[in-house]
Write a structure and sequence with these properties.
It contains 12 helices and 23 strands. It is α/β, with parallel strands linked by helices. It has 4 domains: 46 residues; 51 residues, no CATH class; 189 residues; 140 residues, Leucine-rich repeat, LRR (right-handed beta-alpha superhelix), CATH 3.80.10. The protein has a 19-stranded parallel sheet that branches. Helix 11 links the parallel strand 21 and strand 22. The chain is elongated and about 80 Å long.
Length: 486
Amino acid sequence: MEFEEDIIHRKLSPKLIGQILSFLPTRDAVRTSVLSKKWAKNWTFITKMDIDDGLYYDESHSIQNCTRCKDECNWEFYVSDKECYIEHHVLNNNGTNLRPTELREVKVGGGKKFGEHFIKFVYKALLLTQQNNPNSSMLERFSLVIDNRHDIDHLNTWISHILKRGVKNLKIHSPFFKIPFYDSTSSYLLNSTLLEGLEFVLRMFTIINVPTNSVHFGHLKHLKLFGIFFDLSSDIFTLSLPTLKTFVIKNCDWSIGKELNVEASLLEVIFIHQDFIDLPGRSIKFNASCLKEFSYYGDGISHQINLSGCGFLSNASVKISLKECENIIPNTYCFAFQLFHHFHQVKCIKLEGSEVLTQSEVVYPVNALPELGNLIHLEIGLVSIEVVLGLLQRSPVLKTIVLKKIRMFDKERLNLAAVPECLISALQIVKFQNINGDKQELLLAEFFLEKGKMLKRMSFYIDPKLIKFESVADFIQKKNFVVVND
């Protein structure tokens, strides 16, 4: 064994061995190195660090059950005399269920020892990878996953240290605990011009102070931010990202009345996901010339999204999914209508919850939508007949339409409707998905069969357990269609 180690150590430089060890999680890289005296310091040459505090705890002490809500919770969680939250659970104290009023910051044994061990390891790893190997002072990648509570001073020190070393790809995940960024940490982040990839998945809201009106990341290609609040000092804040390819944000926010301006000429993918009902007054504007995908998910559209400075490629696609909720976010109708005016170039549109297009039809009528001259594939769900007909009228070259749930309508509405151009010269495929077998769905199917001069295929995706399955099956059988049971 020792002879084999000598051969490897002689033929491979410490730097190359460090690059090989970089493919392992940092803890495993250290463990591998210390197996041999000659390799003991080779792990300090790694150029990629992956640190996960979940690898350092004793599983036998890690899980307890809340005596109130019965959910499992990590041993680092505190308790409360109020309702159970993710952070506040009523723990079982050695088999004795304590009353909420008797509880005080209870922790399961082993947490302190774990925390000290993990903190020492991180500091040692950061120090030795820089001290013992000056060439690795700039890291290719640093990944930090935090699932347990740690002192904020330590976390800010680690993040600042990594940013000062000119890391190229930075990933920080802390979905359960907030990591308040110190002003110095925010400053190091905003001045990290060598970043190529940035991924923050943090608990809402981690505040990043932005004391300037613009920030330039000349090498950033991928940006993913969850749970960030930008405290903006200027009315318009510009993110200059000349090499950015993907822009992904979830539950991010910024100061009321401020505009976020994203300058990214090479941007291809925009993904926005908002799970909370926000206050109006935020806006975000994109300037990009070659968009391939735009996606939005949420309870409504809480931000004004301006795509007027964007160009969509010929094969571009759009997906908007709005949840069904009683109290829809204010301005959703307006913002949804405005968005559609930017989609006249795209070939594929998928909409869920698109009934918002007709909730305020006097102000935002469907027939005022722009012509979707390149659209060949359309998927719409939870829609009114006005939306169906309106979009068909605005899509002259549409070839495929997928319908998921149709709202009730009067048959006379179809009889009086003008035949859309696409039904005469383009539409070939009609798919009904997740249907209930209601009358309006069969009426619409008849409409497509009668008016669709180019129609080649109509499909129904239904559940045979539905009460109205037989009526749909009879209709399909008469038309010689195929039933697909999911």
